Automatic annotation (TrEMBL):
Residues 44-66 are annotated as: Disordered. It holds the Pfam family FBA_1. This is F-box domain-containing protein. Residues 63-112 form the F-box domain. PANTHER family: BNACNNG10540D PROTEIN (PTHR31672), F-BOX DOMAIN-CONTAINING PROTEIN (PTHR31672:SF2).
Amino acid sequence: MIIPKDGVTDMSMITEEQNSVEPLVAGTFQRSVIVDVSNPRLAETGEHQRPWKKSRATSSAESAEETPLPIEMVEHIVGMMPFPSILTARLLNRSFKSLFSEQSKNARFREIVKSVSSTWNQYCPVILNRDAEWLMGYDRVNHRWQKMALGIARRNYVGLGSPWIAAQKLKGAGCLICGLSLGLFVCNVFTKGWRWLPSRPNDESPKDLFIIPDGPDAYKILTITLLRPLQSGKVCAQLYDSKTDSWSMQISNANFTLSFNSSSVYVNGLVYYMQYDEDDDRQVMRLCFYNVSEATWHAIPHPFACMLHTIETYELLMFQNRAMVVMQLIPFHNPASRAVRRNTLIVFSIDPISKEIKEEARGPAYTMHGASSTLFTSDDESIYFGDPQTVKSSVVALNVHKREWSCLRRPLCTDGSFQNKWVTFAFQPGMNPFVAV
């Protein structure tokens, strides 16, 4: 048994390659020999293994114990397991592996899982280690960090090595994670299905990457590439459709120069951009959105001009199908230790129709020591303010509707922060867990 430490359930020692549990035959259970180590004589002589005389009643009971369970019952038991216990069952027992594949012969098992998957907790913030051997996410229901062994780290990626090690721009939706390595790839961490995507019409490195659910069994991937020269303002948007396994491309003119460090978020067919830079020796902040279907750009009036000299970091997020602007202000007094100063975090919402910008929250009400906020992410309830070195600092959380600020204790990762990635998406395993890649 792996014992939880400091609020983290550690499943990182479980892999398919280093499996200390013998695989069970589908539909059977195996008996374990229990040794009373408190009796030195039994422990040393091994008398616990001697075939003592058994009564007929005992033999009958053992025969009943070895009777195979119907495969339907085994599928039902495994399918009803909560997440991430069902991942553990997959890793501990290789005979269950076929149940998680995308093949139609497991339709009954998939229906069982889908019937309960909507009750699975979601995890945010999320930390993914550099080779995707495990994922750690905060479970807000049970108020703890949960570490999950994914079992996809040592697979043979067509002789190219693991794409996760050098992966950039990781984005996720449900159980799907996509990223950019030698090319674009997508992986379902529940079924462990993965693939390289077809080559794009324009194979330049994209500035932005988004994965978009498209019904129960499909997805789309949107890439935004800034065409050279950057001063031209030309932007190439390419959309991959998993239903047709093909790319479409549109080129538009943004009428201004976008930079690679501009923040962006995709919400309901619109890509919002926020950019803060120097223009002719003046500080300029631009806020606009790109309509993907129309390939048009529109500017959004914003109230941030008077705040330019006080902004330290900023980010665009999606919260309940609405774009949000999150800012951290420069504190008047920098603390000697790691801390988030009071009233230095501000959250604005953008109305999806009128594009009006309204301040939603400002805080925290007091300085939170031991916390840091350079990267931001969100789920359907809260916005989280953290740091790439999250293992060394706490995470500040804002419940948007309740306007409540809190501090989540830091997770304890055992393999060094340099190997971990703070990813800016919520992990929702119950959303289409069997979608094929």
